[in-house]
Amino acid sequence: MPHVLTDHETIRRWAEARGARPARVKPGRDAMLSYTDDPICLEIPGASPAGAVERITWHEWFRTFDEHDLALLIENAHQQPSTFNRLIKRTA
Q1: Which contacts qualify for 63-72: CB closer than 8 Å, 24 or more apart?
Q2: In this predicted structure, what is the pLDDT of residue 81?
């Protein structure tokens, strides 16, 4: 079942429970890694192409997240924790 997160601490806990780190797509890399004009993403171990992203601080990540009015869409799986996530625009 999809779930939308906007609370910073909830997002951080969700990401860290899956080993994910705040990152941005390196310039000139695959634009499909990003769903925004400012290419931030969550680096999930084993899911990001090698060398495609660079880690940033949570402060930088959340600043961009809020400036672009984003939300994090996740899949709330009950049996096995899912790493599915996508940045989307918040709805009014």
Answers
A1: 64/24, 64/36, 64/38, 64/40, 65/8, 65/11, 65/40, 67/38, 68/36, 68/37, 68/38, 70/36, 71/4, 71/5, 71/6, 72/4, 72/5, 72/6, 72/11, 72/14, 72/42
A2: 79
What's the pLDDT at 91? 77
Look up the domain containing 17 and give its range.
2-89
For 5, list phi and psi in degrees, rounded to 5: -115, 140
pLDDT band of residue 9 (cuts 50, 70, 90) is very high
Distance CA 42, CA 21 (A): 6
What pTM was computed for the model?
0.81
What distances in angstroms separate CA 3 from CA 11, 56, 60, one per listed residue? 11, 25, 23
Total domains, the chain: 1
